[in-house]
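re: ur question from earlier - yeah i can do the single chain one, its not a big deal. heres the input i used so u can compare w yours
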Amino acid sequence: MRARLPLLLLALVTACSSSSTGAAPSSRPASPRATTHAPSLATTTSAAGTVWICPPDRTAAPCTADLDTTVIGPSGAPTRAAVVPAADPPADCFYVYPTVSQAPGDNGPRTSAPEVVDAVHAQAAPFSAACHVVVPAYRQVTLRALLSGRYSDAKAQATAYADVRAAWHDYLAHARPGRRFVLLGHSQGAFLLTRLIHDEIDRAPAVRARLLSAILLGANVTVPAGRDVGGDFTQVPACRRSGQTGCVIAWSTFGGAPSATALFGRTGIPGRQVLCTDPTALGGQPGLLQPWVPADRVAAAPRPLAGTGFATYPGALRGGCRSAGGASWLQVTPVPGARLPAFQDALGPAWGLHIADVTVAVGNLVEAVRRQEAAPAKG
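and the output i got, formated as tokens:
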């Protein structure tokens, strides 16, 4: 019987509901929630025309505010953990957000809309404890395009990619010489970064040497079956061990084996499989996931403490990569007796836990980035 999924996982990133850019949805995505970060809607426009939500040269509230976390352990008693941005982080995290725009056309505007700020805070802000988070706004393919069947429109996708590519060039032009970086994206953001790596990084040794990791979640990154390199990239392998750099972290999250019609975890490309890398191994806690849940999405007791931006549940979820029936995925399983809300599927079996791909393992990923930063720089 297919495992039931915690409501906690649905709460993880309702604001970041999104879909594969290459597949038609089988279920309507959850509506993005109202933002709690409206004062942080200001943007910065560079001389090159990039609209930055969180610019490369300074900190910005969507990426650094409301990081304190409520820790809910086995007893259910909430405690506060102070989380502060790294004072002088040795690397940047270049983040591209998933499909959240509620704009009326096929492409959203290059602005810091409330739903965009929510996505940035939910998925990227926790990484500011390890790296300097950099976020460009881009004219993404919208939720309206997704629901109207125009998500794969070539013109709309080209517009979104052009903005991300231009922002990347702007970032490189002004980054400190030799500055190392992480690429971080989910769903549409991860698809765009996959293309960017293929076009701009995979065959560029000098830039590739600065890559700590590409965290590409919910985007069906592919490799030849049974191998860690090849497929979407020729030079960038999968991340398999703690502290490994220059590699890809990728998965699609499910609470049980993906269905035959799953949008994620499966590929129709002969000889390839969807890549899954184990976040628990990369973050040094084998088998245990460390979710960070936006505090205002926790609907059941125990509630997060006032003034905290996130809640985390240590020891409550187990995770690991699984392969079966032609699918590869990150399996998420509640620990018996753990303090979790009731169980409920998110968007249906074709989607799995797509909306939770990032936040189900934020703690693991932040620690993985710290370990990569501690590794020697490549020549």
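The first helix runs from residue 7 to 12. not sure if urs matches, ping me
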